[in-house]
Amino acid sequence: MAKRIQFSQHGGPNVLEWVDVEPGDPTDFEVQVENKAIGINYIDTYVRSGLYPSASLPSGLGTEAAGKVVKVGAAVSHFKPGDRVVYAQAPIGAYSEIHNVPQDRLAHLPDAISFEQGAASFLKGLTVHYLLRQTYHVAPGEAFLFHAAAGGVGLIACQWAKALGAHLIGTVGSAEKAAIAQRAGAWATINYREENIAERLSALTDGKKVRVVYDSVGKDTWEASLDCLQPRGLMVSFGNASGPVTGIDLAQLNKKGSLYVTRPSLFGYITNRAELELASNELFSMIASGAIKIDVAEKQKFALRDAQQAHIALENRTTQGSSLLIP
Ligand code: NDP
Q1: What is the domain extent for residue 90?
Q2: What total of structural domains would you count in the chain?
Q3: Mean pLDDT of 54-73
Q4: Maximum Cα–Cα distance for the chain, whole Å?
Q5: What's the CATH number where 156 sits?
Q6: Is 49's C-beta closer than 6 angstroms to any atom of ligand 1?
Q7: What is the pLDDT of residues 248-303, one digit of tens each?
């Protein structure tokens, strides 16, 4: 038997339950991983709340962790027991001591990267990779807007942008978070609880505005994000921390300057093993070079059984950078 977090109905953090499960043997193409550190992602709150409804209940939670291989299925060729691995986009259920994961979702974790660093950076770092290198190729010296810059994805984006020589203008919810984002490499910050986003961005760019906005906040920032774009600029809407964007009037894109909009997800950018290896090698080399540092605050390392507290902290906006569950 192994312990895991699950939920039997959608709702707030209090629906999370701490239960025993029988993980079962891995199927032919699966690898059984003993999780050493589990990544907490804002997406997990959408799954728990029902914004992204579960196919069946009760359901496990979480898609990302780092750990050691304990067993492999008969057709697994890339991994063996004892290997250090990290995974993202696994079938839901990573909030567990043991998880069976298809081999195409796993990467070998370099020895120089700890389990905690791996679990705190894999899904978020792969996301930043596709956003800044594929959805739109951010150029050295180019200014762009990135919302929630002191969050898990945000702090990696600040560091990646700095390494590229690009000017990330990050929104944040407090003065403390502004300082954290700037230390990580943000070129400038906007406190969106106090400042008008579009006016401040216009001042920071001498009225030029930007060619790309990365928006994971959703409903609350949609309109302001469009107002930050140059004609024919690109709005990358990749999350819903304040609620989903609905009911878009396409004429609005015309009026605001023939804008483009995309709504990407990691699943659309990592569709096979080759894409996973390419992106994870770039991420690992950014970490190995020291360009991206992954430090998780001690108060954001929660025992696995305390997943409820972890979700409360994330949704109350009291966290900065990544948070972890430790089995
Ligand atoms: P974060 O650590 O960034 O936490 C979310 C942050 O959003 C908060 O800390 C808060 O920062 C900000 N925020 C703004 N408005 C609200 C609100 N009303 N309620 C709660 N938070 C708010 O989370 P992650 O790093 O895990 O994820 C960041 C975003 O990226 C999420 O929206 C997630 O869904 C998205 N994502 C999308 C992916 C994709 O491929 N499409 C993949 C991975 C993540 P502050 O206090 O500074 O405002």
Answers
A1: 2-121+270-326
A2: 2
A3: 97
A4: 61
A5: 3.40.50.720
A6: no
A7: 999 999 999 999 999 999 999 999 999 999 999 999 999 999 999 999 999 999 99
